[in-house]
Amino acid sequence: MTTSAPAMIGRDADLARLNERLDEVRAGAPFTVIIGGEAGIGKTRLIREFQAGLPDDVRLLAGQCVDLGSVASPYSPVKTALRTLIADEGAERVLEAVGPGRVALVALLPELAAAEPAPALPATPPVGPQSSSGVATGQLHEAIAVLLETFSRERPIVLVIEDLHWIDAASLALLRFLTRALGSSRVLTVLTYRTEDVTRGHPVRDFLSEAERDRWVERRDLGRLTKAQVRKLARSMMVDEAPTNAALDTVYRRSDGVPFFVEELVGIDGCSDEGLVPDTLRELLLARYERLPESAQELLRLISTGGVRVSHALLSEVYTGSADELDAAARQCVNAGVLTIEGDDYAFRHALVREAILSDLLPGERARFHARYAEAYERAAAAGTRRLAAEISYHWLGAHDHARASPATMQAMREARAAAAYATAAQLGERALSLWDVVPDPVGAAGMGKLELMGRTASHLRNAGEGERSLALVKAALAECPVDDPQYPRLLRDKGLYLANVGRPGSIEVLEEALAALDARGDTGPSDLRATTLTALAGRLMIDGRLDDAVEFADRALEVADAIGSARYSSIATNIAGISRADRGDVENGLAMVERARELADGDGAALLRYWVNASDQLYLIGRYHEAVALAEEGLAASRAQGVERSSGVILASNAVDPLFALGEWERAEKLIERALALDPTAPFAVYMQRARIWAMLWRGHTERANELYRSVRPTMAAIMQVEMQTRLSAGRVAAELALANDDLPGAWREARAILLEKLKPLAGYALPFLWVAARVVAAVRARPGSVTESIAAEVDEAVPRLRSLLERLDYWPTHAVWAPLFEAELAAASEGAGAGVPGTDIAAWRVAVEAVAAPAAPGFLVPYALLRQGEAELAVADRAAARTSLQTALELAETGGVTSVHDRILRLASTAGIALDGVGGGAGFVVPTGGIAGSAASDADAAATAELTARERQVLELIAEGLSNRQIGERLFISGKTASVHVSAILRKLGAATRTEAVYRAGALR
Questions:
Q1: pLDDT digits (tens, 9 = 90+) for 148-162
Q2: How far apart are CA 560 and CA 533, in angstroms?
Q3: Beta-carbon-side half-sphere exposure of residue 580 (alpha carbons within 13 Å)
Q4: Residues 6+ apart with CB under 8 A from 857
Q5: What is the pLDDT of residues 845-861, one digit of tens each?
Q6: What gap in Å lies between CA 844 and CA 87, rounded to an integer?
């Protein structure tokens, strides 16, 4: 009976594409190819042909996902692939290559412990989603990435994971990480999946959607064969006798172009008799099976219960006959083309055949087979080092033995947690909860009460990035929990933490409720629960801007932490208290407390990360940019080593990005943003990065891109702004600047006035630059009152004293001396010249601002900006020589500092005013960039309107700038005064100006 075709038909282009990608990977650019297609379409055959043709210098690491129902064994395909690497290189060399990640790798593969006589512990205890053994999910992901990168330097690596539709949650999370985080490695990842099994709601569906947006990932869907290809495939399998055209047509019609079905149809007596062709797909899949004797059929039913492949050793354990009988039956199955031999495993030639045979099992037979596998796995687990509880749980469930499935499920949950497979641990926790009411002694089986199990499962969900589901589960636990239950305060604390984790309001109130619940139970003494609750509450109060309350609760947390001897919480409480005191105005002592927090951490990973996060942010806010970057990068490196780059690491990257912008290191900052967002961080952390990226796009001259990104993230950003003052201020400032750049003055004021709506005094470090932006909005509205309604104009005028009062109340902050002069310069108006009465035209005010922004505490982009504004003011009084000097210096600084929007605005102004700047030309007709920031009351829209003026109108405008009347203009240009008046009216109309002075100022033609 014929099995597979001797040659692959119809997939030459796909095979060539894989080889092309391999050639690209050799050059040091990692890539992922995802191959999809319906069952039997030839995915596996394509992979086998690709593998067979790999050059000797390429290392192949392959794994296959296992069908264990809804909860697969964590990291199963990954462990298979890594064990190949270990077999090739040896455990010691692999552990040496993985470096600091060896602890995580041993947690995944316990058999490696034999090569670790004294397992090394990380330099600082890990934090975040971690197991009792100290392994975090991110730490394991980073370890595997380092392993692949290290060995790929020696030889290119092809990592193949098949049957993604059966993948476990932990492996899927790892693949998501690897596709984004593998850097300069030579790794080609090839994934396959069955399209019809990845339906709506399947976790792989989201993975595929994300992959489509990644430029380092290619998806290829295999299509059905054409009629000509089917005929060619059929003929290739029939070398002894040529099939009739009628038989070939029948094969094409029945197979519908699916290669596996073609092979099965041809395999039935070579299509010699059309009457032998099965009528249904099930009959086709079972055709070879049904021709075997009963002993072989029983063996196939037994193997199908175990999965797509089963090792000979395991099969010997579950088979009730003799070894000779097993060998005889297995040989019959192999000869019939139902099974293949792959190493020490028996595997079905195709998963479809296994599924058809599995569906043929009788209920009692299925349960008995599952029980045999469960008992065999229990014996293997007791005798070896491999974790098999997930398999044991699955098979006891299949055997309908809930009493034995429940403890196995709990053990599987613990094993998944130990391997940092939190998504799988959560699934197993949910399975254990579903068994609770059908197990005779659920507490005994689980080793804990139901409420504790719900709490732990919620924690696993949170650590797996399932914030909303973790919140829903802890709410359900609270609904079942009596208020006097010992678990009640703990569940409330968790709810408060989870609310904060997903950026939802209410965390402060829930944490306060948790403290009240502790007090109500009489549990008023120091405890770990009280310390964590007080610390969490203090942190949320700090972020919300309730600084007095934050200091109070941080001090209380410190007392409890000291009483229980917790260095971690002593450090974190001191940290929060120091930041809050600094934000209140006691900057020097507050920073001293933050440094004290570092000492108190005593090497604790969580406390140190909290120190790096808060200290780097505070240094940025007070203008110590180099120190801020150094601290943030130090913390970022630690977050990667500890496996929490997706959480704490993203915050630290954000804390490095802002000071890098201030230092003019735009590209370096963008790389950090790109990597952080590739890690798919939770909503609050992603918002920090997107806000920074939007602001950079704006000041780098990419206004339209900034608009698009802002529109896409605005809903998420708005949700985080509700619960975080710092995000309200920083994101609100960016939104106001963006509206200014779009010449949307009503929208700009709507965003800017938010700073006056804060119920508490705004955080000074964030509020001061926001006040500067608000002043720019006020100046633009006052200069162009026709651009807003009368009510908005009146509201803006009324707000100015309040803005100035707030500015004065923040004079304790170290960078006040930078932002206050800018605020005043934006609003100050010249008393004479074309800019008389127009905000932002007072030369003296801008000279003070230029001096202020030369200080080290000022962000670098402000220097060319302030010089640009000074040049505009100098043009307003017709001091062209001074203006040229200011603009020339501003242009050079904007170029070297990468401040593209300021650079482009200088070119527009110089072109309009006819000022020639060194290296760029100038004068009428010079083409300059468009778009960018709205740097002054005269917006970019005004520059566009100026471009519409005719040559004669430009001449008239220049004479208006000199203060000439219509009659004088006529005399100068040898035209009548009436004609000059017509030109003046046209200029006012095109520029949307109410007066001649406003027209001159808007156009910037200030000669």
A1: 999 999 999 999 999
A2: 11
A3: 26
A4: 622, 623, 624, 814, 815, 817, 818
A5: 999 999 999 999 999 99
A6: 76
